[in-house]
Amino acid sequence: MALLSGATIMALSAGQHAFGQTALPKNIPEGLKLEADQALPITPFYTDNTLANTPSWPGALIRAEKVTDYAIPAGMTAWRILYHSLDAERHDVTTSAFVLLPAGPAPAGGWPMVAWAHGTSGVAQPCAPSLMKDLYYGDEGLFEFPKAGLAVVATDYHGEGTPGAHQYMNKLAQGYDVIYSVAAAHEALPGLLSQKWVADGHSQGGMASWSVGEMEQQMNNPDYLGTVSVSGTVDMLDFIAPKPEEIGAPFYFPMVAYGLKARYPDFDVKTVLSKEGYEHYPLIATKACWFTGYAAYLGKTSSQIMKPNWTKLPAVQAMLKEDRMGDEPVKGPLMVLTGGGDVSVPPGGVRKTAHKACRNGIKLFFHLYPGLDHDPTMINSTQDQIAWIKDRFAGKPFNENCGTF
């Protein structure tokens, strides 16, 4: 397929968030207001555990409801679902998601389905995309999938929307949430969704979607057709300790500390966060989301927020080991995209991981969009993603390009 070239892409610089066209906040009150403007209430749909505590299996549907309070394009329909999933240690967890259906009647066999994994929205319960009027990625290409005839099931990840701790930046926890959203969506909307599906994700979700490919190598689900990973945090060390020339985004690091605590309950976040870094941590951990996290640490460097040598602590090293990508076999085709101007998830780490995967015999297609930052890469690659995904549903041959990048 024809990929966009640097000459035809406008090098947007919308920042490292999933509200690509919204002005970034300069302070915490501005961040909280931007989030409040999009927020929907946490209803008993998310919190009533009467059925959630019933012994069940991963992917089992707990409840579903049709939704009318999302700001979605005319003709599309939306549902919320609640389902059983697994955390990183394979404990049962309750996870929420939304489903978007294209306009018009479903084709024979149901709408082809994309299991979507979102980028960082925050770590607190209110930060679930299904609790946002614009579904977080609405203006960043997500609505283009249903417009192209692809249904979307989009997990929130457990701990966002549902009670409990969100195991932020854990490839196993997020991978399970994506995989099991597919079975739950089928149960919620019988006959409307194709059994065949593809995984796709951006940023945090780019690691999750790649992880889905690894998991499916073991599960060997014949209906899984492949994965798209866009600007994925597939080199976690490069993400949390970028080279000076890579800039990086230190305001994510308190969220990483939260994820460590969620994954390893005995972990003390104050072993990695400085006094200045901990100042806004309780707000981020309980009710604030991406905008407020960005504003809370605006202008702060990693050395101001984090303690010296924090990446060498045992819990961090355990996270890095668990999140390693590019070593395990991947089932089906893999598309890896990144932006040459990404200051949140350095493209060097993505390319390095793709090189490693190729050396390990993983067949993939890699492309770098020159000059594009984190979210502009998602926005400007959407049509390339859709074309690649449609090729998978059409059964077309997969062209890998290992050895050429």
TrEMBL record:
Organism domain of life: Bacteria
InterPro entries for the chain: AB_hydrolase_fold (IPR029058), Lipase_secreted (IPR005152)
A Pfam family annotated for this UniProt entry: LIP
Protein name: Secretory lipase
Taxonomic source organism: Acetobacter malorum DSM 14337
